[in-house]
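Slide 14.
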Amino acid sequence: MPLLPGTGEPLISLAKIFSFSSAFFNSLAKNVVTMHRRQIRQKRKASHTSRPFTPYTKKYAELKSQGLAAKGRQQMSNSTVPDLTLTGDMLNSMKVLHAGRDNFSYGITDPVQAAKMEGNQLGVFGKSVRRSKKRIVSSENNPMPKEIREMVMEEMSKQVVRQITTELRRAGHGYKVITI
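Slide 15: predicted structure.
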């Protein structure tokens, strides 16, 4: 492997090219949380498989459209199309939990809001259990919708290009890597 003159370091460090900082993952995670919330609220491709959620029951859709579903609380959404937003508390409680040098995680730590999300995932709504009405936001096979996974891969590839450019400049062999 060619070495930088006088340093004994490799000309281009693959370890540096493919390493990410916790600051990068923290910024990426914040964008993912924002995108995931937005995608759910926009109702299209809201589920973990990028499909719309199962419709509300007729009774609940009627209550929600009339602004009566929140039981004495301020209702944020009157949509009869599932958007997992009644008061906004559950989705607003979704946040970055961890951002390290090689990964990030996000979720809900508030026990009340986490229970609501888990109820949606399992099809448990109050005393009613309707497995056919599951509204799955994340699963082991699909931790986030396809569009968000693609954005994550795009941001990571941009970061690799930036790091290749940095390494080439450090070695005095170029100034810019261009991707097509």
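Speaker note: The chain has a mean pLDDT of 87.
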